Amino acid sequence: MPDAPALLSTTSIAKSYGPVVALRSVDFTVRPGETHALLGANGAGKSTLVKILAGVQSADSGQVFVNGQPVDFPAPLDAMTAGIATVFQDPALIPHLTVSENLRLSSIAPAKFVEWLGWFDLADLDLNALVQELPLDTLRMVDLARAVARDPQVLLLDEITAALTADQAERVFALLAYWKGLGRSAVLITHRLAEVMRVCDRATILRDGRNVALIETASVNERQLVEAMLGAPVKPVAQESRETGNAGQGQNALEARGLTSRHLVQDVSFAVKSGEILGVVALEGQGQERLFELLSGERQPSAGEILVGGKSRHFRSPYDAVRDGVVLVPGDRLLALLPSLPVRENLAVPIFNHIRRWLGIPQDEPQRVAKAIDRLSIDTRAASQVRRLSGGNQQKVVIGRWLVAGFRTLLCFDPTRGIDIQTKREIYALLRELAANGAAILLYTSELAEIPLVCDRVIVIHAGRVVDEQAAATATESSLLTAAHGLEVAV
Amino acid sequence: MSTLLNGRTTQWQRLLARNSWVLGVWLLLGALIVWYSTLIPVFGQFQIVSISKNSLPLIYLAIGQAIIVIAGGIDLSLGSLLLLGNVLAARFMDEQSLGVVFLVAVGVIVGLALLNGLTGYVISISGVPDIVVTLATSYIWSGLALWILPSPGGGTAPEMRWLFTGSPSGIGGGYGLPILMIVVPSLLVYFVSRHTRTGLSLYAIGSHPVAARLAGLNVRQAKIVSYAIGGAMAGLAGLATVAITGTGDPRFSVGATATLNSVAAIVLGGVALTGGEGSVLGVVATAVTLIMLNPILTAMGIDSNSAQVIQGVLIAGVMMFGGLAILLRERRS
């Protein structure tokens, strides 16, 4: 690598959230005047690195340098002062204030800001409009124009094109090209590899909290980028003994037909049979959250229908879904739990539905709960308050409550995120066992290695649509990741 | 030209739409005053002075509460700070020269601002909810007030009384000064809150603290500023109280009632308890409205003990009306 002086660099950055290691050791360098891509699969540590560079969080160890000088960012303002302007996935604008008031807060001259807005054809944007009245794509561009108007040395753009139309994304790229022409640097965090190939000079690839490759984009193609993100061919994980005997033999337990919700979920159709585990693979922000919200009754689809056991159902709330036996294990465990209550009561919550209004708790409640604790081997040493349990044990409680209450279809949203390997195995085994007993399971996971281990079939979602379906046994991380990027899978 | 005119009309329409609640509560107050003037045989200078001067403490306190709530907090200690300001003034202004009286007045405002700023600091570093910390400090300040002035007493200079009531004796006088004392501090705080960077940062941290921090604001500093403004306004309210009554009164119930009334006034005035929304201008009208209930009920021949029931019904009624208006607007769009 030629010895261009680094504008922004990090050495051995590490960061953990409790027991979860997000970054192990990252060395990352941005040269003056380059557009640099930061790539990696879900959970590789991209977001954490951005947060550290933007001063939102501090690293546990390691050092950030700007122009060769060691810097420390206790707050986002300090990173801005050092010449790093960040555009986050959620626009950092105050909803109850007008655009011009937001500019005022950031001490940015409106004239300069409006000039940059011109790049997005928004020069006539009404600056007296309240931020909460503006659509999300406009806000993202407002946020970007504000960041550029700060006149930073480095722009950090976290998934800037995610909520934008193709036309708007083009305008962003035009701005980036101009920015580069000014001799300024930008860092792009994105899942869209085509963008990387077009706009970026170099790409740093993160995997499992480390920087594993630095690639000149001119010398590779998209497929090679995907391979670099995966690293060495993954060693085949020992297949758990799994009975595929009755998989795919049962009836359709849950079926989606043409499900649509705004632009997030578009015309999604699939079916899960009883006894089957259907995997869902998607990169971040491809509409999988909304899909699970639709299936669990949290939101209503704008078009399409949900069929349970072959009958069309209309879920007005999760209560309706639960009564039809469709239950959710959400991505955020603490959202599902009552953190200050003991394990026993958390497990028993869904039974409250069965309590006949004024007659007391069913007689067999203690036995059912005890059975669930036993079956899940929940560590009950800290059972008096669920929030004191480890993440893995909390997740078991969330699944366990549906064992207590009974269900037919289980929707699992990334159930093993941030969970240790031992508990993960237990959860896989539990899911297989449930399926063997006739449950239908829809499993979204951000860990692609789980798919061949646990699932029977897998569907891949990209930009709100089902773009691929594969047999889980033959699916590889490479084939899944390629499809998830919206690319054709080589046969 | 026509587009310019068009632009201007929509600007006006928008201004109206955004401030409809403030406009509504001022119209309500206007209607109430007109109605009151028909209830009593004579409505003149005396009534105007009486309503405006008696409203002063609650107006100041409600403005302070509004600023704190807009910045995402809530302060249950404002009434106790009013007590503290009241007894400090009554104790140390009594029979003193004008210079000393002036210094004590400035000292009360600045001192309470610092004291409550400290409360804001404690809240922001401890992470204990605002409502808990200020509940605790409300007892502390009330206790201090009793310690400074164990029983009602003390006094102040005629000039102080004149400043807030328009009369050196606190009786009679013109309405010019009391109204000026409503208008000047209200407009000052309004201007600071809507047109300075500091003021906007209060709205920002109340509206979306995460975005505010990511946008480079100092969230802790803004929080402290909001509590300091609240403390200063409570100090001003304490001074107004000593000017109106002529004495200091350390009773806990006075402070507790004042705190609750300040919350009632801001809720009625359109300040969202969730933070980031509302204007101090609406709060001024609702504070006067709450104070006017008593004379109106007296004029109607209703037992003044029923005032609280009426006040409660009014709050529930106005808020339900507001909720209905929002619901209808959402239906339409």
Explain this structure:
The complex is a heterodimer of chains A (491) and B (333). Chain A is of the alpha/beta class and 491 residues long. Chain A contains 17 helices and 20 strands. Chain A has two domains: 223 residues, Rossmann fold (3-Layer(aba) Sandwich); 233 residues, 3-Layer(aba) Sandwich (Rossmann fold), CATH 3.40.50. Helices cover 32% and strands 25% of the residues of chain A. In chain A, the strands form four sheets. A six-stranded mixed β-sheet of chain A has the order 6-7-8-3-9-10, with helices on both faces. In chain A, helix 8 packs across helix 17 and helix 13 packs across helix 14. The longest helix of chain A has 16 residues. Chain B is built from 14 helices and no strands. Chain B is globular and about 60 Å long. Chains A and B meet through helix 2 and helix 3 of A and helix 1, helix 9 and helix 10 of B.
Work out the helix count of chain B.
Answer: 14
Query: How many separate domains make up the residues of chain A?
Result: 2
Question: Structural class given helices, strands, pairing of chain B?
Answer: mainly alpha
| Rg of chain B (C-alpha, Å) | 20 Å
Helical content of chain B (DSSP H or I, runs of 4+) = over 70%
Class of the largest domain in chain A, according to the CATH hierarchy?
A: Alpha Beta
The succession of helices and strands of chain B, N to C, reads: HHHHHHHHHHHHHH
Specify the biggest β-sheet of chain B: none
Mean pLDDT of chain A: 84
* Number of strand segments of chain B: 0
Coarse morphology of chain A: globular
Domain module count of chain B:
1
CATH class of chain B: Mainly Alpha
Helix content of chain A: 25-40%
Q: Roughly how many Å is the radius of gyration of chain A?
A: 24 Å
